[in-house]
Design a protein that fits this description.
four-stranded parallel sheet, alpha+beta, seven-stranded mixed sheet
Length: 843
């Protein structure tokens, strides 16, 4: 389909207005200490902090970026037009493994590669006309930023929240480096193919578990977050009230603990399962015939992700250790297994398996022919599990439970737990699924951890006045032989801050989630030099009023940001409890039913679309195609439809601007200048005003509710309704209607509407506002058209005042010439009147 031509050139118009906005400082956030020019305005100077999750600088922007940032731009421009002080910043989450991998694969410098990618992304974002305050730009790979990562780490170290501990990692003995789970391919290193080993490594952690109760309880304050995000956070934190039961190994004094929320089922525990990482496993299998097979199994599981291991619908695998434990409540010997579905990080790393009353245990027991015993009677009373298709997890009475038989299991939970506690076999406790945050990375491209190791003094923090610990540049990065920083002699070798003796620096760098856990605070005062941010500025701007980003960050990023906020509050730098008041998680952009990706060959390049249709058309399409939370399917013909709509708006405004000067002359020369003509014009103007003010109300409410697609539909309807309405109106009424349409369309298509606004003779820019207000009194129609039926068939239509009295309405209908032949000479037996809609006369 050929692309229709447009009277204005977006290739000239869009750069023009981007330049004008920059020159005027249209989107610079007005600091909290600076008076607003011309007074506080309709928003009374209230602040509005609008933030989209900042991107990793991978190079050119993609359609996911376009959607996320266009949603934010609409809201920012809308609030600015309402008179708010708007903070709408942008930056780059610039540390991370992709830059390091680029250095390994392409032989490029990570610094140069990252800065080049930032430049490309900046250009792409500016091309779309987003309303960012670029003076506040933050790049996390800048020493001006990451010095404060190090400062926050040191404060956590002082408070005992940063500590070093051993943990198992994926290790490539050839490359001498750790590997993320996704870098283990077919049990080998993704770079060299060498079999990956599990290795214990001393690493740094942050004690996020110290804030677990508050992180969980404060979710109730986040009333404007999506329910599914809150549920994901609650599940990840995972508070469970239950009982910790001690099992003793058979023929040994060794013991291990299991945690359960179902102590009422302890009599039905027929085996126990340890996590492959459990420290007792190696001892259990030592010298046993199955030792080799168990170690192979442990190696295999160690290369699986935690998500895969616990995913529903995936077959669970395990192996018998050759050891037995003793069930404390009945003295039975139960086999000890190792299985992939038990994680050492959760609970105690061991579970008592009750296959009749836990579906996961049921499936595992069926697969491995393990014994089952019913201890909670199901509704049908059948206590023989042989014919069961699934576990019974409901309520019932205790059976096969010793002295507790016949007791409702809800009561049994309490009494069995208390009995075991009195016997010294167990204790009631609270467990958390959340574990402390491992932040060590054996990588180059990240924030250096500000710690020094001294032979005499041990672990010594870098002094604050020696921050930042600068990441050295232009070093060799091969991906082999361990951490790249460990090979940089001038970085590693230093003096101990305490005793001044030779010492060495930590060569691990921080996880990049550190960078994004507080960047929203830095945006409040990016030039602050004495602290991570100015507290007065943060007190004014925070919390973020609207945060926008992908659902993939619903757990870790948001949880870490909440943790940092609470810690910085406890340091006295903040007053708030939570960083983000409202959260919107936008859906992905699809092509041919699949997420866009280069490997699938279904990528639509934003630059190509902008070159063909302009930025405004892309912006309007990306919002019109689907509600923001839903997935969006790219459609080439649909964007052409948006292009035609913008053409029609331009054509309407252009025709008005040319003809408006002739209206008065034409009106004075018109022969139809009597009372009837004036009455007709007044009716047309009244109806046009009603449509305009109804559109203002609709678009305003839709933006508030993020219904951008229906807001655009409303603008399309308004433009269509104005096509005939303008011709019979006065210049003033026509101008009011055209300008209202342009104003309402401005946040969606800012370049084109600025051009039209200037074409209509305005000196000020639309970016300066104000947002149009509607008159509620104009929204009610004064007249309605009533359908008149005779014996159920439509015979006429008449226009009457709204809510006309019934007797007056009857008289008007009986006088209608079009109805004479249908009711003349007949007596109306019945009148059925639906007010303001239909009248049916039965004759």
């Amino acid at each position: 389909m050929p692309i229709p031509t447009m009277s204005y050139s977006f290739n000239e118009c869009e750069p023009k207005w981007q330049r004008r906005w920059k020159e005027a400082g249209s989107f610079k956030a007005v600091p909290h200490s600076t008076p607003l020019p011309g007074g506080e305005g309709k928003g009374e100077g209230k602040k509005y902090y609008l933030l989209e999750m900042f991107p990793y600088p991978s190079g050119r922007i993609h359609m996911g970026h376009v959607r996320n940032y266009t949603i934010g731009d609409i809201l920012a421009r809308y609030r600015l037009a309402q008179g708010f002080r708007v903070l709408h910043p942008m930056g780059f989450d610039a540390f991370g493994q992709p830059a390091e991998n680029a250095a390994i694969k392409r032989g490029v410098d990570p610094v140069a590669w990252t800065l080049d990618c930032i430049g490309q992304m900046q250009a792409g974002l500016k091309r779309l006309g987003f309303s960012y305050d670029w003076d506040r730009e933050v790049s996390t790979c800048s020493a001006d930023y990451y010095r404060w990562n190090q400062w926050i780490f040191l404060k956590m170290f002082e408070k005992g929240l940063a500590y070093r501990a051993g943990a198992p990692v994926n290790w490539c003995p050839s490359c001498q480096t750790t590997l993320a789970n996704e870098e283990v391919v077919q049990e080998g290193c993704w770079r060299c193919g060498t079999a990956v080993e599990k290795k214990e490594l001393e690493q740094w952690y942050l004690k996020i578990t110290a804030y677990a109760p508050e992180l969980l309880d404060d979710l109730s304050k986040l009333i404007h977050w999506p329910d599914r995000v809150l549920t994901m956070q609650r599940n990840w934190i995972g508070r469970s009230e239950g009982t910790q039961i001690r099992f003793m190994l058979q023929d040994s004094a060794k013991t291990f603990d299991v945690f359960t929320t179902r102590p009422d089922t302890i009599f039905g525990a027929t085996y126990v399962v340890l996590a492959p990482e459990h420290p007792l496993v190696s001892e259990l299998i030592q010298g046993k015939p199955q030792e080799k097979q168990v170690r192979v199994f442990i190696g295999k599981v160690s290369r699986q992700s935690k998500q895969d291991r616990v995913a529903e619908g995936v077959k669970k695998e395990g192996i018998f250790t050759g050891a037995f434990a003793v069930n404390p409540v009945n003295g039975e010997s139960v086999p000890v297994w190792v299985a992939d579905y038990v994680l050492f990080e959760y609970g105690t790393g061991a579970v008592m398996a009750v296959p009749t009353h836990d579906q996961r245990d049921f499936l595992f027991a069926r697969e491995h022919n393990l014994p089952m015993r019913v201890v909670i009677s199901p509704p049908d009373g059948k206590t023989d599990p042989d014919g069961w298709k699934e576990a019974y997890e409901g309520e019932g009475k205790q059976v096969n439970s010793g002295q507790f038989d016949g007791m409702p299991n809800a009561e049994g939970k309490k009494k069995i737990a208390l009995w075991m506690e009195e016997k010294g076999w167990a204790k009631r406790t609270v467990q958390w699924r959340l574990r402390d945050w491992l932040i060590s990375r054996q990588r180059y491209w990240g924030t250096p951890i500000p710690v020094i190791y001294c032979g005499a003094c041990g672990v010594v923090p870098v002094l604050e006045d020696q921050l930042p610990v600068i990441l050295p540049e232009k070093i060799e990065i091969t991906g082999t032989g361990g951490s790249p920083l460990a090979k940089v002699k001038e970085f590693v070798e230093t003096a101990c801050p305490k005793c001044r003796k030779p010492a060495r620096r930590e060569t691990d760098t921080m996880a990049t989630f550190i960078d994004s856990s507080w960047y929203f605070l830095r945006f409040c005062s990016p030039g602050e030099q004495k602290l991570p941010f100015d507290s007065a500025a943060a007190d004014f701007w925070m919390p973020v009023d609207q945060y926008i980003g992908g659902i993939e960050h619903a757990i870790l990023h948001l949880l870490y940001s909440r943790f940092f906020t609470k810690f910085l509050r406890d340091l006295g730098l903040l007053k708030l409890e939570e960083p983000f008041s409202r959260l919107l998680t936008q859906g992905m952009v699809l092509k041919d039913g699949e997420v866009m990706s280069k490997s699938k060959g279904n990528v639509v390049d934003p630059d190509g679309v902008i070159a063909k249709y302009g930025a405004d058309a892309l912006r309007v399409f990306i919002l019109f195609a689907a509600p923001p939370e839903d997935q969006l399917e790219w459609n080439d013909s649909a964007i052409e439809g948006i292009w035609r709509f913008l053409n029609r708006v331009w054509d309407l405004a252009e025709r008005f601007s040319v003809q408006s000067l002739k209206f008065k002359e034409e009106e004075s020369e018109s022969k139809d200048s009597g009372p009837e003509h004036e009455t007709l014009n007044l009716k047309l103007e009244t109806e046009l005003k009603r449509k305009v003010h109804a559109a203002i109300k609709r678009v305003t409410e839709d933006i508030e509710l993020f219904k951008f697609n229906t807001a655009i539909s409303g603008l399309m309807e308004l433009r269509n309704g104005m096509e005939k309405g303008l011709s019979g109106c006065s210049p003033a009424a026509a101008r009011e209607a055209v300008e209202a349409l342009i104003r309402l369309l401005n946040p969606f298509a800012p370049h084109m509407t600025e051009e039209l606004w200037e074409m209509l003779g305005h000196k000020e820019m639309l970016a300066a506002g104000p947002w149009p207000a509607y008159d509620a009194g104009l929204l009610t129609e004064s007249e309605v058209t009533i359908v008149v039926q005779v014996n159920g068939k439509v015979r006429s239509r008449i226009t009457v005042p709204v809510n006309m009295e019934k007797e007056q309405l009857k008289s008007l209908i009986l006088a209608d010439p079009a109805l004479k032949k249908w009711i003349d000479g007949n007596t109306a037996k019945e009148w059925v009147i639906v007010p303001n809609r239909v009248v049916n006369i039965v004759v």
